[in-house]
């Protein structure tokens, strides 16, 4: 029988440090990777040869979710990484693939298969983007399409290596870092960009698209509608930011003591955000792939070229190239933008149903991925109990047994994994 682990030595990889890097070194590596990510996401340094200008405007929301920038080497973003993780988690969580990830050999096998799947998906997704029209080549000939596909796939491989560097030499994970960098970049541009929606310099009657400048403009002419419309997203973003910071400090502390040394102990903290934002990222990536698939299937209507439809629904494309779902499954599984303002303008049953379906899907899938992530990442009660027992600690008042510790931890870990996803999705 073929041993998948033999492939590992042929795969590009980043070696783990043989020592514990200092905090300064971790910050240095994380900062360096962040700079490289921004450079490769820019049209100046990361532009893909053979791609038409303005590629991917209809998939702007996907770029935020995937930490990508269409038309550059970062076009695929974290797409191949999270897609391979989704597939493997579903297979292992449903026991279709029966691997015990507590076993070092099977854990190594899991990591190898995930890396192979990610590399394969780099080429699959690159081909889908180019052939499906998401990243249209400047020339329809096969040579140009091939060159563009290879460049996009190479960009995906670079993201994989950057993610490994952050995970092994930096702080946190590359997936979270790239998404955070993309979100910060989007927020900054949306707030302070001095250009118009068409990318031109502002003129009289055509103000800049930056929310902050529109807010200042509303103050100068005392236009209360303009003031409220631009002030609301700024305030809501700040409120959500502080809520996340506050709730990040909430935890359940399990008291521990050394079985061989009385009077010495510590607390094992189980944070409210136990699995962090990874399950939400996986769910968002699943929706992003679904929206991308729908967009590539869509074809323009004969009586309305700006409206494209497929069996999954219809999208309306504006003059700037951005698209907005207007009907079908894709409409109900897209984020409801301007929800509060639309509610103020009048009660709309379709709008409420849209919001409820989207929230139910996000919460449900996030809970499923959270449960799978706990079991596949060594954060389940059994794995944590083995860690506690291996350092010679026990829960005061209970026998020194991993099984007893597991039973106690099972009171907290599954509820935290479910509760945090409800909080994250609501935010």
Mean pLDDT: 79
Strand order of the largest sheet: 3-4-5-6
Q: So how many helices?
A: 15
Biggest sheet character: 4 strands, antiparallel
How would you describe the shape?
globular
Strand content: 5-15%
What Rg, in angstroms, do the CA atoms define?
24 Å
Order of helices and strands: HHHHHHHHEEHEEEEHHHHEHH
Query: How many extended strands?
Result: 7
Low-confidence stretches: none
Can you give the helix content as a percent range?
55-70%
Give the end-to-end Cα distance, rounded to a whole number of Å.
48 Å
Estimated structural class: alpha+beta
Describe the structure.
- By secondary structure, the protein is an alpha+beta fold.
- It has a domain at 196-248.
- Helix content is 57%, strand content 8%.
- It is built from 15 helices and seven strands.
- The protein has helices at residues 23-41, 60-66, 79-93, 104-131, 142-169, 174-192, 211-221, 224-248, 278-297, 329-332, 339-345, 349-376, 381-390, 402-409, 413-426, and strands at 251-258, 265-271, 299-300, 307-310, 313-317, 323-327, 393-394.
- The chain has a four-stranded antiparallel sheet with strand order 3-4-5-6. Strands 2-1-7 form a three-stranded antiparallel sheet, with helices on one face.
- Strand 4 (307-310) and strand 5 form a beta hairpin.
- Helix 2 crosses helix 6.
- The longest helix is centred in the first third of the chain and has 28 residues, at 104-131.
- It is globular, with a radius of gyration of 24 Å.
- The mean pLDDT is 79.
Secondary-structure map:
Layout: H1 23-41, H2 60-66, H3 79-93, H4 104-131, H5 142-169, H6 174-192, H7 211-221, H8 224-248, E1 251-258, E2 265-271, H9 278-297, E3 299-300, E4 307-310, E5 313-317, E6 323-327, H10 329-332, H11 339-345, H12 349-376, H13 381-390, E7 393-394, H14 402-409, H15 413-426
Antiparallel strand pairs: 1-2, 1-7, 3-4, 4-5, 5-6
Helix pairs in contact: 1-5, 2-6, 2-9, 3-4, 3-9, 3-12, 4-5, 7-8, 9-12, 12-15, 13-14
